[in-house]
Amino acid sequence: MSSDQYIIEGARTPVATARWYQLFIGVVCMMAISSPQYVWTLFTGPLTNKLGVSLAQVQITFSLLIILQTFFSPVQGYLVDRFGIRLLVGLGCTLSGLSWVLASQASSLSMLYLSYGVVGGLGTGIVYVGIVGLMVRWFPDRRGFAAGAVAAGYGMGAMLTTFPISNSLQSAGMEQTMMTFGLVLGVVGLAASRFLRQPPALLRDAAVAQTPQTVSDVAPREMLKTPVFWLMFAMFTMMSTSGLMVTSQMASFAKDFGMTTVMVMGMAALPLALTIDRVCNGLTRPLFGWISDRFGRENTMAFAFLFEGVAMTLWLLTINNPVLFVLLSGVVFLGWGEIFSLFPSTLTDTFGTRHATTNYGFLYMAQGIGAVFGGPVAALLHQYTSSWYPVFAVAISFDIVTALLAFFVLKRMRMNWLAAHAL
């Protein structure tokens, strides 16, 4: 019996049970690597003060994190398939935790870039691509929901650390905070990774309502030649830019709008908003994944992307109201986080499951481009215009354009592709 087959007490666990167990473990692994991205905004102020540099220079760290997380995704996906899910995800969780330990000792921008950006990006990328690729194989009948559930772990994981990290920054300082949380999160992720397994070659268990694959498997080399892939890539890039602008810049524009010194319901507005954001950013992924399983990928994309554009517009118009700042920030993330369930499920629906991990690795590279535009480029646009309004205008425009592309272009293009490549 293969070591990748799932065994409990000497007996093979029914797939119907095993896959839900694997989904839970995958969520834990994703939660362990989420904080480097989603609490980054809390570190930007202390880092600019410590290193004596500008916000745009510090934000390069965030871009490096996402670029390394995404641009090496095809290689990371191949390594996961080649050397096994447990080994690679365990390594990724370790690198993610180690990046904070090293960053806590950084005394220059180059050291910060190397530790938080490069080491952290490589580690989180291995885990993210590996877990998503694993889940679309375990759940052929609920692909959108499964991809959304583990992506929710990534989106919501920082919910558990936002207030503790914010409080620790106040009481213990940045160095001790990074050191402590880096060690804890690295150990948790490494321990969880030891329980991951690949699904059996065929999901034969009668309890699994498997939907047979209806499209031929397309290898990465051939996929990269198709217009439908590059349309999805462009759409992913625009949506990533919009969301990552908010993720990376939130503490900065909250300070400019006077939201870092106010209280809402007896709590500081910024960490409260970030906590609510993590909840909404997580819930939206399985929610819209589930909706797309039933009402179509492109229809769901069009609604969700337009929803975010409207929410971001309302947020900008009411940004000086502390209560609405907190509440609408959550609504904005409710309309953004679903890209991490809709795009991988749409891609696998289109190009098959055999190369799902590596194929998604290529698409996930769009997140890296979005990090450049949403991070340092957005910071530079603010610096040169002395206003956040042009930055928001670009992000809102991307949301609306991508919604229109999903409904009017991608829907027809995929329909033609599937008709030509059906089994």
TrEMBL record:
<feature type="transmembrane region" description="Helical">
    <location>
        <begin position="228"/>
        <end position="251"/>
    </location>
</feature>
<feature type="transmembrane region" description="Helical">
    <location>
        <begin position="388"/>
        <end position="410"/>
    </location>
</feature>
<feature type="transmembrane region" description="Helical">
    <location>
        <begin position="363"/>
        <end position="382"/>
    </location>
</feature>
<feature type="transmembrane region" description="Helical">
    <location>
        <begin position="145"/>
        <end position="165"/>
    </location>
</feature>
<feature type="transmembrane region" description="Helical">
    <location>
        <begin position="20"/>
        <end position="39"/>
    </location>
</feature>
<feature type="transmembrane region" description="Helical">
    <location>
        <begin position="257"/>
        <end position="279"/>
    </location>
</feature>
<dbReference type="GO" id="GO:0016020">
    <property type="term" value="C:membrane"/>
</dbReference>
<dbReference type="Pfam" id="PF07690">
    <property type="entry name" value="MFS_1"/>
</dbReference>
<feature type="transmembrane region" description="Helical">
    <location>
        <begin position="114"/>
        <end position="136"/>
    </location>
</feature>
<dbReference type="InterPro" id="IPR036259">
    <property type="entry name" value="MFS_trans_sf"/>
</dbReference>
<feature type="domain" description="Major facilitator superfamily (MFS) profile">
    <location>
        <begin position="1"/>
        <end position="414"/>
    </location>
</feature>
<dbReference type="InterPro" id="IPR011701">
    <property type="entry name" value="MFS"/>
</dbReference>
<feature type="transmembrane region" description="Helical">
    <location>
        <begin position="177"/>
        <end position="196"/>
    </location>
</feature>
<dbReference type="InterPro" id="IPR050327">
    <property type="entry name" value="Proton-linked_MCT"/>
</dbReference>
<keyword id="KW-0812">Transmembrane</keyword>
<keyword id="KW-1133">Transmembrane helix</keyword>
<feature type="transmembrane region" description="Helical">
    <location>
        <begin position="83"/>
        <end position="102"/>
    </location>
</feature>
<dbReference type="InterPro" id="IPR026355">
    <property type="entry name" value="Oxa/Form_antiport"/>
</dbReference>
<feature type="transmembrane region" description="Helical">
    <location>
        <begin position="51"/>
        <end position="71"/>
    </location>
</feature>
<dbReference type="GO" id="GO:0019531">
    <property type="term" value="F:oxalate transmembrane transporter activity"/>
</dbReference>
<feature type="transmembrane region" description="Helical">
    <location>
        <begin position="323"/>
        <end position="343"/>
    </location>
</feature>
<protein>
    <submittedName>
        <fullName>Oxalate/formate MFS antiporter</fullName>
    </submittedName>
</protein>
<dbReference type="InterPro" id="IPR020846">
    <property type="entry name" value="MFS_dom"/>
</dbReference>
<keyword id="KW-0472">Membrane</keyword>
<feature type="transmembrane region" description="Helical">
    <location>
        <begin position="300"/>
        <end position="317"/>
    </location>
</feature>
